[in-house]
Specification:
about 260 residues; six-stranded mixed β-sheet; about 15% strand
């Protein structure tokens, strides 16, 4: 935790709390930290029936061409906390490009809430359990960024979120076990799915000594096409992880078939 983030949390706890979205001082906290009750009503939190999607591990293949019964590793589940609609872009840009580390506690709380809703709904039958759903996790990793991007920002936004999530979920942070081996273009700036697939293909390396037989949550802030997440998940499986479940703050992704 850097000094500015520490000071922000100290101020929120002992002095005058302010909402990270609207900047207003508030007295009664909403369900989520650092957020006023009015801004909470504006969050595009996903409904239960849209909370979970499945991504094909072979990201270049259309989901509609793969059967859920083909093999146990054809897909992996991804839990999506919010739609990428106002005010989420503002929140994400603040973190990625303007040093808004103070937003990460709210992001982690939203993602933790989504994961707990998912697990509770599987246990109670409100959400149908598919072969690829996981009910147990023992490690969490952040989507890695390349060293050149880390030098630009001086931090990895997903790692900042994971620091909070590991505490909230009582999971071991194994982010050190996965790295990005080459710099890639931003997926959101590429024209089509094929370009995005080639951009992130085989760009991750994971450590089997740390990941063998672990049930891993893979964390990212925003998911566009899902190809980056799928490529990273594939590297975790190649490093002998037992299961991988994606957890993202926001996305407008909708699976072709689930």
């Amino acid at each position: 935790m850097d000094l500015s983030s520490f000071w922000f949390q100290l101020k929120q706890a002992f002095f005058v709390p302010t909402c990270v979205l609207c900047g207003r001082v508030f007295r009664a906290e909403a369900r989520f930290p650092d957020l006023c009750s009015l801004c909470e009503t504006r969050l595009p939190i996903r409904r239960l029936d849209c909370l979970r999607d499945f991504l094909p591990l072979m990201g270049g293949t259309s989901q509609s061409t793969i059967s859920f019964n083909d093999n146990p590793y054809a897909f992996f589940p991804v839990i999506i906390a919010c739609d990428y609609l106002h005010p989420l872009p503002q929140l994400v840009r603040s973190l990625k490009f303007h040093g808004g580390i103070e937003t990460t506690r709210l992001m982690a709380a939203l993602m933790s809430h989504a994961l707990n809703e998912y697990l509770f709904s599987l246990h109670t039958g409100r959400l149908a359990c598919r072969n690829y759903d996981r009910l147990h996790f023992d490690a969490i990793v952040a989507m890695p960024i390349h060293a050149s991007r880390a030098r630009e920002r001086s931090y990895n936004q997903s790692q900042e979120i994971v620091q909070h999530l590991a505490h909230l979920l009582a999971l071991e942070d194994l982010s050190i076990a996965i790295s990005r081996t080459r710099a890639t273009e931003r997926q959101s700036e590429l024209a089509n799915r094929n370009q995005r697939y080639l951009n992130v293909q085989n760009c991750f390396r994971a450590d089997p000594e740390l990941l063998r037989d672990r049930h891993v949550i893979l964390v990212d802030d925003v998911m566009t096409s899902g190809l980056t997440l799928a490529s990273a998940a594939k590297s975790l499986y190649l490093a002998s992880a037992a299961t991988v479940t994606g957890l993202v703050l926001a996305s407008n992704y909708r699976a072709e078939a689930a």
